[in-house]
């Protein structure tokens, strides 16, 4: 196979790239504002947007590397990758560095590395490979096998504890199964069973996780501590009104009322400064972006590619839904970032790697016709 | 190797994803519309309130000075070290660092922190050290920037430069109680309020009025901009009639004795000195007194919190003979020069009442009886007057009435009568009670200030004046002694011979070039048993010793003073109170 032949390049998914660039650009701009604090005299801007820019650059390099080879080669390494992921997840629990109470990091000297991010990639690839080989609507046996394989990494991640990432992996895998199609009777059983079993999970949640859910249900229960985030976020976004307060003019964020405004609550800064109009446009961008992933999943010429694309779709979909939901006060607070907006090196890199896979799938969808 | 299963895109899966995207779009868009358009205005208001805070500007409390302008109660900047829990990452580490900076132990700081954290919101300053010394301040201030959440708060604080000497006059300020907060809507937690004496009596005027400013703050309460909406008005300052030097002089002269001394100008009622010992340090209340210190003050047997000049009530002893004598003069009970016999005792029914002088005074007339303080003479005078006349007359001379000096919680004392005894003791009045009343013992209780007001009235020609503490205020007359000028002169003269002539009990007061009149008194604390009666004062247990009185006036040229002293458990009036008053006259008439 020629190295990046003309046809491959010709089928490069330019609209997805455009959407990615737009989202990343607006995200950097917004991080610049989120890092800006009004002081006694003048303002200071934190370095977040610069760092995010470095990570995006690294991410784009990763995309370039990933699109070079045919994604179908990856089938060969899904199991070793899965094994490595499990090893690192166990390793981090034993030797990892604790940051604010959770052990998620492996210190590599120059940089820290979160095995959780690797787990996202390897679970998508493993599921895609398994689903590609399974026939028709899934039965109990197939479901059970996949669930069991996912349960290990998810369990290790949950005990770190990182509820957000664990949930994200669980839900993206669930999405992939739905995309593949599940036996009607099983689907029905799940639809009835999950709401019944959900309360049982309450007993497995940690105290701070229970607090968050209680606080979500009654934000004014504890307006200074846990509920504070939700209340301040809603005030920030609501006070943006129709047109917003303008770039760098948000009082909620500039005066530090907003907590975690460069990470999980970064959308509040955007909502305050750009108003309903800006938010609606941004939402449209996100939805077009997601739709591009849907198109790739729908037009892929092999099932492995289609399932990878669907996994990446759900990876982004759940993050966007949950993050916006919590920032807008529709859901309890779970530590899930908004892709391309929230500051975070590892997650930015993983976002790019996964999109690299999608670009790879998308540009090779015509290769099969030659065979 | 690129073998792949033939793949037909699942139309169901494709549809599912599309529906999810559209659903996400609709859900979030509706929510945004709801928050930003429908409720946008309300949230905008909330954002506005988020960043604007109203704060009070504290008014400086009015100053209190003495008659010569010396500062008795002022303000000084106080620097408190506070911790804001929300901004402090590691409270244990911060506390241990504070302990390094100061002499306060870590355990102590931890205790303070734990006891206060329940009462202060997490984003408000929790005061750990109410007032830092200057060296602590210098040490801490340079290091503070590395410790977010620690804060130095500067605020004006009341200060009493000469704490115990003026404590009973000035009182102190302290944090208001919950009840006081409820009663005064203008007060807030953290304000101070006058709690005692002048600080309390003049509180409204001293306090001034608070101003208001609007601050733009960030979420950590850091102030970014401020705008004054309403200026504060400093409290009114006051100048007192008190002479700080004289007050200090008397304080020193009293040594470790408990008691009260009042120096007054008879013609104006102006109080030049009002000493009550022991006193307390008002500054410790300002800084927030510890429970241990407070209990110490409350349980101290010498009661340092009581202003003996207005709250100490004592039997007047022989000083009261002046009142009995004037009652006799008014009613012409006995002719001035009629001599009565004193064999050293007086028999009433089957009870024997003794004179203080065992052998008796022989035949004495009124002036001689005052001069030598003959008890038997006054037993007879009292018996002739009767208790109704005595109590009626004493009340007309200002006893059992507050002097209405500016200080709160003044006691009015007791002038007993038939009704009074029935009501309070539950037994009928007896002849012996009258005899005891006639020599100022028994149930009668007066304050040193009441005696001062009475003697001042004798000196100024009969005007009962309200004792006054504020400079430049007009004398307030409360009544007149029901006496003729001749009678007043007779009494003043009797006091004078008590000082000047041989055998006078107040001989210690003799002062060159000045007219001094005096009357001693010994107030019995208990009825001493026969064995103790003859003993030296020193031999009697302190709490059983008699209180010593001395009431006096001094005149040189136009300068007129009334000086009254009460020494608690001092024993004899002359020997205990005499030297103190003598030194006051030496000071006043140099």
State the gist of this model:
The complex is a heterodimer of chains A (371) and B (590). Chain A has 371 residues and is mainly α.
Question: Can you give keywords for this protein?
Answer:
heterodimer, A: 371 residues, mainly alpha, two-stranded antiparallel sheet, 14 helices, B: 590 residues, alpha+beta, Penicillin-binding protein 2a (Domain 2), Beta-lactamase, 2 domains, five-stranded mixed beta sheet, five-stranded antiparallel beta sheet
Question: If you had to describe this structure to a student in words, what would you say it looks like?
Answer:
The complex is a heterodimer of chains A (371) and B (590). Chain A has 14 helices and five strands. Chain A is mainly alpha-helical. Chain A has one domain (6-370). Chain A has a three-stranded antiparallel β-sheet. In chain A, strands 1-2 form a two-stranded antiparallel sheet. In chain A, a hairpin with a 2-residue loop joins strand 3 (97-99) and strand 4. Chain B is an alpha+beta fold. Chain B has two domains: 55-239, Penicillin-binding protein 2a (Domain 2) (Alpha-Beta Complex); 307-588, Beta-lactamase, CATH 3.40.710. Chain B contains 23 helices and 21 strands. In chain B, strand 14 (345-348) and strand 15 (351-354) form a beta hairpin. In chain B, helix 14 (321-331) packs across helix 16, helix 15 packs across helix 21 and helix 16 packs across helix 19 (431-438). The model of chain B has no long low-confidence stretch (mean pLDDT 85). At the A-B interface, helix 7, helix 10, helix 12 and helix 13 of A face helix 1 and helix 2 of B.
Major sheet characteristics of chain A:
3 strands, antiparallel
User: Roughly how much helix do the residues of chain B carry, as a percent range?
Assistant: 25-40%
> pLDDT below 50 for ≥5 consecutive residues: which ranges of chain B?
none
Q: Terminal Cα separation of chain B, in Å?
A: 124 Å
